[in-house]
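Quick one:
INPUT:
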């Protein structure tokens, strides 16, 4: 009875067609149906039915699993595959080819054949070799090295604030987001194949731009912000005063970049008089500011794919997203725990 129930479960849940067909054959045989009836229903030969039943009697449920053969042996050995991947990771110029700056599968194939690396290979085979080795086409990115002589000290100070928030206050990441133009913004949406959503291609700047000054509270994970016409030290100082009023009696540790309004004497004097510490990022290291990831999500979910015609309309969309996000906010912990920055003893001057 237990075997029967297990066979029934397999016939309901099996995704492999071979396993499913064998389970049905065994189930029908167990129900007393003749081989002839099984072959008629399943459209298989009598020999197949008998082989499945005998195998199940001998090996049990293991007989239901297909035993795939290994297929044809590889014609391109491991050494040649490694060579192909090495060439694919280099630039054509490294091989004296100046007519183009990057490989396509067709150009790579032609180069391999010309050099005699392989006697014959198809583009599909090349694609599979590169995929199996974890080599893929990726967009080129840029790297801007920090010129800050105190980079490591500042980085470790910020990481320590993230890892061990002081008990006497709050760690808050602040920055500006913008400029907020009124313009059609490309984005992504689910649409019928071949029928993308269309936005206008031209626009004007009659209404100017606005700026969002934002603060991410790591204790709650919530974002607090105003949107203003300017982003001078006056507007920034208004944001800090609002944060001070929100958490009276707690010391504020304000992580920020080196934007000139952040370093204005009025801002420094206010911080000294209001129990707030200005924690500046190393130069060209905005990636250390946790609010940057929030800005990326804001741009993706609230602005991309939109074409707002007024600032009130756009600001309302931003406000709706922030309300939705803050309602689901969680404390911010575990920043870049597996990143190489955790083991740096000196600053790499260029990208790896």
């Amino acid at each position: 009875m237990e075997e029967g129930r297990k066979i029934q479960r397999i016939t309901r849940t099996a995704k492999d067609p071979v396993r499913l067909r064998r389970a049905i054959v065994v189930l029908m045989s167990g129900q007393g149906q003749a081989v002839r009836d099984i072959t008629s229903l399943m459209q298989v030969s009598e020999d197949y039915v008998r082989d499945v039943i005998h195998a199940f009697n001998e090996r049990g449920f293991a007989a239901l699993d297909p035993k795939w053969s290994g297929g044809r042996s590889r014609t391109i050995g491991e050494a040649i595959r490694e060579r192909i991947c090495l060439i694919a990771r280099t630039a054509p110029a490294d091989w004296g080819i100046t007519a183009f700056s990057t490989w396509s599968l067709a150009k790579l194939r032609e180069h391999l054949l010309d050099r005699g690396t392989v006697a014959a290979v198809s583009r599909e085979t090349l694609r599979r070799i590169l995929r199996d080795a974890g080599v893929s086409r990726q967009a080129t990115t840029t790297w801007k090295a920090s010129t800050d002589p105190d980079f490591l000290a500042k980085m470790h100070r910020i990481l320590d604030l993230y890892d061990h928030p002081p008990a006497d206050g709050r760690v808050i990441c602040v920055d500006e987001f913008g400029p907020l133009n009124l313009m059609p913004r490309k984005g992504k949406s689910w649409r019928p194949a071949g029928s993308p959503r269309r936005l206008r291609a031209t626009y004007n700047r009659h209404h100017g731009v606005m700026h969002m000054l934002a603060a991410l509270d790591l204790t709650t994970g919530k974002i607090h912000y105003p949107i203003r016409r300017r982003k001078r030290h006056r507007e920034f100082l208004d944001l800090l005063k609002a944060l001070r009023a929100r958490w009276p009696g707690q010391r504020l540790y304000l992580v920020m970049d080196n934007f000139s309004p952040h370093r204005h004497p009025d801002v420094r004097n206010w911080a000294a008089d209001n129990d707030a510490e200005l924690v500046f990022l190393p130069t060209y290291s905005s990636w250390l500011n946790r609010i940057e990831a929030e800005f990326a999500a804001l741009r993706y979910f609230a602005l991309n794919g939109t074409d707002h015609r007024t600032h009130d309309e756009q600001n309302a969309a931003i406000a709706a997203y922030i309300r939705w996000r803050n309602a689901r906010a969680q404390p911010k912990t575990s920043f870049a725990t597996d990143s190489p920055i955790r083991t740096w003893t000196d600053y790499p001057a260029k990208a790896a």
